[in-house]
Amino acid sequence: MCPRGEEPVMQVDFGRTSSDYVRHRAGFPEAFFERLDREGLLRSGLRAVDLGTGTGTVARGLAQRGAVVTGLDVSADMLDAARGLASGMGLGIDFRQAPAENTGLPSQAFELVVAGQCWHWFDRPAAAREAARLLVPGGRLVIAHFDWLPLPGNVVEATERLIERFNPGAPAPFVSLSQSSGVYPPWFRDAAEAGFTQLTSFSFDVSVSYSPRAWRGRIRASAKVGASMPASAVSGFDAALADLLAGSFPADSLDIPHRVFALLATRP
């Protein structure tokens, strides 16, 4: 059953698109980790859990700053990719297959829990309670997103319209693509109901440059394309997107606006 009477989410398996995910999905920018540092959330030896780690982009960012990181995901394919990327960077991250709602990790054993670009896929109340269980008193929860922004006439808006044409009406877990603003007020309620206090947030915008080929790869690695469409439909969509880019956005480099949003909360 979905929390709060929401509609069921579409059947999504990011493991089906893990190769594109590794190559083309940009992780959180350096400015995100710099902001966490300024907020006093990062230090050497910090014990951290990265929920829904995917290919480990957040986990690696934390480990590079000295944290001792455990990364969790339900997809074995994504975890295999995460281990390879971390190993290639010489980072020792403990990746485990487990859901965010029932991690199997010890209580009050961590000082930071992060959920990057994944909170909407969870049973949110259960995940918030599990995060509270994992954290020591005074520990911090960070729920963060890094979303592209569909603006009138830009390539994101045109791409989203094409996605809707190929995969119409697929229920999204939080808000429809065309309505997304990159800010998530409901997450405050999730944290508060789980007992978290001192809720604050920040957001800022950045631009990410993609070649047309890389943008196609990034879109194939999204929930409503490679993670949910049949392979034959993905191929047809990709060809249509290539035609769209060549005809309407022919530049060699596409500047894609993104918004970083983060909710910060404290376990009493």
From TrEMBL:
Residues 49-143 form the Methyltransferase type domain. Keywords: Methyltransferase, Transferase. Gene3D superfamilies: Vaccinia Virus protein VP39. It holds the Pfam family Methyltransf_11. The keyword Transferase applies. InterPro entries: Diverse_substrate_MTase, Methyltransf_11, SAM-dependent_MTases_sf. Belongs to the methyltransferase superfamily. GO terms for molecular function: S-adenosylmethionine-dependent methyltransferase activity. It comes from Myxococcus xanthus (strain DK1622). The lineage of its organism: Bacteria, Pseudomonadati, Myxococcota, Myxococcia, Myxococcales. This is Methyltransferase type 11 domain-containing protein. One of its GO terms (biological process) is methylation.
